[in-house]
Amino acid sequence: MSGASARDDGPHDGPHDGTAPATLFLLVGLPGAGKTTLARRLAAAHGALRLTPDEWHLPLFGSSLRAEGGRDVLEGRMITLALQALRLGTSVVLDFGLWSRDERSALRRLAEGAGARCRVVYLPVALDVQLARIAHRRATAPGETFPMAEADVVSWRERFEEPGAGELAGEEVPDPPRGWPTWAAWALDRWPALEVGEG
What we know:
- This protein is α/β, with parallel strands linked by helices.
- It has helices at residues 35-46, 53-61, 70-87, 101-113, 127-140, 150-159, 165-168, 183-190; strands at residues 4-5, 23-28, 49-51, 92-97, 117-122.
């Protein structure tokens, strides 16, 4: 498995042609980092299925980010769909943000179990740029985003676990946290409605 920074976004192996393993692209970054724009480019370049939770969350649950746990259930179903697509040989762009290193490790392991490659693609963003992008998107496309207070954005930046060089380079997935026998078990607890399936 291998990783990439946001600059590494061109068509490397083209759309999946049935001869090479499918690839799971994990887009990592905070709101306003440009993930969905890059996700669209990657999906077009690699003939990949793009899964962007906001595009599903807003029609289903409205502008509440919490939605009584609905977001986690939605992501679990999307990951299930992603794993099914990978097993069929279709690459997937997972446009989730993935602030936690554990989330990324679990998904890397699940992709491996599905017989796919995985690339971690990180989009760093400065706070002033992030706030300007969030404000612009809210002003120009209010139905496509969530209201975000500056204090929340600052708090999210403190919680975000930036991927290191080893993670971006596709280093071996570490063991799951203490108390979890496998990453699949951890993922099933993290994302309700996730189905790991065969692999």
